[in-house]
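TL;DR need structure tokens for one chain.
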Amino acid sequence: MEKIISGIQQMGIGIPNVHEAFDFYRRAFGVDVKVFEEAAEAGLMLPYTGNQPQSRHAILAMNLQGGGGFEIWQYVGRTPQPPKFNVKLGDLGIYICKIKSPDVAKAFKDFKAKGLNVISDLETAPNGKPHFYMKDPYNNIFEIVEGIRKACGKSFLIGVRLSPERFGMDLNEIKILAQNLIDSNLIDFLDISLWDCFKMPEDLKYHDKTLLDHFIGLNFKDVKLTVAGKISSGHDVHKILKNKVDFVTIGRSAILHHDFPKRVIENPNFKPEPLPVSKSYLKKEGLSNSFIEYMNRWPNFVQN
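>> reply
TL;DR here they are.
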């Protein structure tokens, strides 16, 4: 089976000054949501740094409208060096980053008005869509192309998944982010991964209501809400749907029963197969051998 790249988590962008670059990308591309900032030795990058550990200062930032992240990467153990030649189309490597825009023509005018280094006219790409190129102050090249909504049409649903707590995240900050996403009018649904839809927040200062209730209280306007987290049975599904949730996201029970939605519709009290289950059972439900081996890492899921 042919492998297809369907998404990029983040794009590493090498620059000589991390804070100066972050300020530029924030103003030019709106990547103003800082996920992390860290100065450390890049031990995991040894295959790409000649097996020599390199110290670096990195900022991972995202645009609130979605897409991959900008990992702005500065060497601190040595002076970063640009290529010794002018990069051209046909050279080997990843050297042009695509940025999606809801309005390419408007972005072109805006970049020109801001005095950014636009290096091409607004042109029609081979796929018939408008695009143009620009360079940042460090000679990195960016191609501005049509965003998801224009490329896929109004019938294509766009959603964002958020985790609300733990791993350094503050529940109230995630609620503010969620409301900003709703207010942007750029998404169709918000998917909140609660880990457990029936639990209280981890942080005691938010124990005035359940974790789910914290999000139900947001003003969703026309945006749909879905949640995930220990929704296992028909009873769980109906209990969540009665709490102003538009649809549910199912994990384990959908792995155990490929037709879980149909079973719950037919029987509101449906209960999934008790764990652990055999490999032959999972194969019958449509899991590949690789997926079954992955599930074998989950405690008490696969019978050995």
